[in-house]
Specification:
Helices cover about 40% and strands about 20% of the residues. The chain is built from 17 helices and 17 strands. It has a seven-stranded parallel sheet with strand order 3-5-2-1-8-9-10, with helices on both faces.
């Protein structure tokens, strides 16, 4: 067994990528490796193929029985020369090391340190991998790497969205190489996984990815005045503009650079011009880049405090101003797959029922991404997507069917989903409330001003 004493040194999902630590100031790459049933074999295969000098800190989050004394450190030590640590509260992560979560604990990373809390024995659904991935995305931003290995259930499929949103790398074990394919399948079904492969193949992808990231090629292209590199980025913008009608030159350069950088790394392109040529010949890669740049990540009642304020203060005040027969109109801009729009509709439905006053409600939910709108319009979500919805709301606003939870007809009829670009399309009129969250932060100041002017 290889152990090391805790070393001494020092954020819940935030709305803005820019408020996360800058990878330039915190250069350490941290890989969260999630596993459940059948995971030990996958972990052994993964670390047996991992060089000892990748520069990555590997944090293993495995579902462990509370009554089982884990021997994982001793078993993994047979397959790697990296030091292996059983995590103690406040332990600082360091490169080229492996950290194992103890039984009966939840774990996050904050300020580069691993923080432990006791697992709630009364909590029915424990999702330690999701919990850690979310903190990882916040703490190291685009230097986060999420790895999902063998396991039953769907733990990890929500947390990888946060890693993806932060510009990190998401790798998933292929179903045919996993003893249990529940977790890998749920992760792949999100549509945001960067690569699916065997555990043995993952370390090489991680190594190549870090090497390319370290070159800073896309950052230089977006930020420098180098003519050739800038032309490459402009060519990418033109391809996206011609295909999808969206001008990403309005987006913040750092955000765009991180996304292009990541796609370059994953495709192992020699330089920006090679990647442009690849985009011109591969529609799937162009669509993958497009989806990465849109950053379509959302969930029901995201940031509970905001919805509590809306429910307690905003909606009652706005509804009290309405005369009988007047229409109440809301615009949800950048609605992605619909969770935010439905969350607002649920609050409105409950409020109108409480005051016993029928009101004609129209919610315009818009986005530029067609496939996201298709998902939103269908209004069908899996059980894990609704984990933060209280049971009373789940019972009153959804019906469970074979393919998932369907939003009720009363809620669905409040909403009109439509494709709309807030930078260039005409705004909606006579609006009582606009919800635009986690979108303007990606725009450059000129585009922000234009959008806010249209909202006004």
């Amino acid at each position: 067994m290889r152990t090391q004493s805790a070393q001494h040194s020092d954020d819940s999902q935030v709305e803005t990528v820019d408020s996360r630590p800058d990878p330039q100031t915190r250069s350490l790459f941290v890989a969260g490796v999630g596993a459940s049933a059948g995971g030990l074999e996958a972990l052994e295969r993964f670390f047996k193929s991992t060089p000892v000098d990748t520069g990555v800190a590997f944090v293993v989050i495995q579902h462990l029985s509370p009554d089982f004394r884990s021997l994982m450190d001793e078993l993994l030590a047979r397959h790697t020369r990296m030091p292996i640590h059983r995590v103690e509260d406040g332990m600082l992560v360091e490169p080229n090391s492996i950290y194992l979560i103890p039984p009966k604990k939840e774990m996050i990373i904050s300020g580069g340190k691993l923080l432990l809390t006791d697992k709630d024995p009364l909590q029915d659904l424990s999702l330690p991998i999701d919990h850690f991935f979310r903190s990882l995305a916040q703490d190291v931003g685009s230097n986060a790497i999420a790895v999902v290995l063998s396991g039953t259930g769907s733990d990890g499929s929500r947390g990888i969205r946060d890693v993806h949103e932060a510009g990190g790398l998401v790798l998933v074990q292929s179903e045919e190489t996993a003893k249990f394919d529940g977790m890998p399948r749920s992760a792949v079904d999100t549509g945001i996984v960067d690569a699916v492969m065997s555990p043995e193949q993952m370390p090489q992808v991680v190594t190549d990815y870090i090497k390319r990231r370290s070159s800073g090629l896309a950052s230089a292209a977006a930020a420098s005045g180098d003519g050739e590199a800038t032309h490459g980025v402009e060519a990418i913008f033109k391809l996206l503009r011609d295909e999808y009608g969206i001008d990403f030159s309005h987006y913040k350069p750092n955000t765009v650079a991180r996304r292009i950088e990541r796609r370059l790394s994953l495709n192992q392109s020699l330089d920006l011009d090679d990647y442009v040529k690849h985009l011109r010949s591969d529609d799937r890669e162009l669509n993958s880049l497009y989806r990465d740049l849109l950053i379509g990540v959302t969930r029901f009642f995201r940031d509970r405090e905001a919805f509590d304020r809306l429910e307690r203060d905003v909606l009652p005040e706005l509804l009290s101003r309405k005369r009988p027969g007047e229409e109440f109109r809301i615009w949800v801009a950048g609605c992605a797959t619909g969770e935010e729009a439905y969350s607002i509709a649920i609050l409105l439905h409950e409020r109108l029922h409480l005051i016993g006053r029928p009101t004609n409600v129209k919610i315009f939910a818009t986005d530029v991404h067609g496939s996201s709108l298709e998902t939103a319009s269908a209004g069908v979500y899996d059980e894990e997507a609704l984990v933060e919805v209280p049971p009373s709301r789940l019972a009153s606003c959804f019906s469970k069917k074979q393919d998932g939870y369907h939003i009720s007809g009363d809620i669905r009829q409040m909403i009109v989903f439509a494709r709309h670009n807030i930078i260039k399309d005409a705004p909606f009129t006579k609006i009582d409330l606009i919800s635009c969250r986690n979108l303007l932060i990606y725009f450059q100041p000129a585009a922000q001003k234009k959008a806010l002017s249209l909202f006004h």
